[in-house]
Amino acid sequence: MRCFDRAKIFAKAGDGGNGVVAMRREKFVPLGGPSGGDGGRGGNVYMEVDGSMNSLLPFRNSVHFRAGRGDHGRGQSQNGAKGEDVVIKVAPGTVVREAGKEEVPRIAENGAEGPEMWLELELKLVADIGIVGAPNAGKSTLLSVISAAQPTIANYPFTTLLPNLGVVSFDYDSTMVVADLPGLLEGAHRGFGLGHEFLRHTERCSALIHVVDGSSQQPEFEFDAVRLELELFSPEIAEKPYVVAFNKMDLPDAYENWPSFKESLEARGIEVFCMSAVKREGTHEVSSAAYQLLRENKVAEDKLTAEMVRKQQTASINEFEITHDSTTNTWHVVGSGLQRFVQMTNWRYVDSGRRFQHVLEACGVNKSLIKLGVKEGDTVIVGDMEMIWHDAADTSGFSNFRKGSTETTKWPQWK
Ligand SMILES: Nc1nc2c(ncn2[C@@H]2O[C@H](COP(=O)(O)OP(=O)(O)OP(=O)(O)O)[C@@H](O)[C@H]2O)c(=O)[nH]1
Ligand SMILES: [Mg+2]
């Protein structure tokens, strides 16, 4: 049962093919020169999100993913064929990590030896709202009332073993996805009960609905115990906005407990609602309040997205291609991000020239040029910026910037 939302797989990029040493031998061609073909590039391993998948179950049977190896090069300048790529399809909301590490892995790299690693996949539900609460509080009942979902409802704890999802629609285009989670027990953060396994799913939710069984002996105590579990499991989850829904108001015990529960929580600054999920009374108010929290959160998130887009644009500077014109010994560095950056940089100032230099270095342009065999005196063109390469021993690499062909600037020192 644990397999459905976690999996461990092995991915290996294809090895590159070997190059071959060969000399051209032909009648009437006295000095044929080398004619060995390069080895083919190894295949890459890609991950692709497939909207039709909703679990990681397929990875129970297939664990190993290897991209094809590149063919070896052959004589007569025949290069080896590229190895076949492998695409691993995962469900939306899958988080990929290198086993035992936190960062997102990079497995699509070239090399004679294809990189390989174990990857941990973790599926986190993509729900807007998570319903949390003690076992038997009425979480599934609430979901069944506010959405078309039909989760199992029964009068015993841990009826819900896997999270249920439901779509709650208000009018027209305002909808939200609500996840009903297994009940939380005291000690859940230490692995008691089932709640712990699934609390992770709430990490992606924008807000929570906390259902309290109003007919229990001490509803406030139950409320605090669940809050404590949330905090102990993850402070991040505990910080999410939430609404409290005091349930089972149709039962005399709950009806009696309600005034003191309400008073006590409101004194702590917590907004509470009462409802009878079974009788469908007060449930609309609860889901509307949750939707309100969601909307407030969206505004904040949009700001964050704008910030991320800006950061991504900076990252796109990193992608470039270098071509070499051997007749003029000119290197063209092309990349839309780089180009834009060049246009932005006011090359006239030493300071910005230096900044530009730093960007080229940070983006790996200098290193790539050295790898490709740039020589002293060669011209390098990035956008409309022309530079002369000088001794690579100097970390800066370039000796002067020229914009167009008219102006030349000497850079006295770059350190
Ligand atoms: N009287 C009354 N019973 C309710 C109400 N809401 C839920 N119940 C009952 O409480 C029991 C548990 O309901 P569920 O919705 O399965 O509770 P849950 O929180 O999902 O429970 P777990 O999945 O086991 O954690 C069922 O017998 C429901 O019929 C209510 O408003 N009034
Ligand atoms: Mg349930």
UniProtKB/TrEMBL annotation:
Gene3D superfamilies: GTP-binding protein OBG, C-terminal domain, GTP1/OBG domain, P-loop containing nucleotide triphosphate hydrolases. Its cofactor is Mg(2+). It holds the Pfam family MMR_HSR1. GO terms for molecular function: GTP binding; GTPase activity; metal ion binding. Coiled coil: none annotated. GO terms for biological process: chloroplast organization; ribosome biogenesis. GO terms for cellular component: mitochondrion. The keyword NADP does not apply. InterPro entries: G_OBG, GTP-bd, GTP-bd_prot_GTP1/OBG_C_sf, GTP1-OBG_CS, GTP1_OBG_dom, GTP1_OBG_dom_sf, OBG_GTPase, OCT_dom. It comes from the Eukaryota. The keyword Cell cycle does not apply. Residues 127-295 form the OBG-type G domain. Residues 312-391 form the OCT domain. Residues 1-233 form the Obg domain. Keywords: GTP-binding, Magnesium, Metal-binding, Nucleotide-binding. Belongs to the TRAFAC class OBG-HflX-like GTPase superfamily. OBG GTPase family. This is GTP-binding protein OBGC chloroplastic. It comes from Prunus yedoensis var. nudiflora.
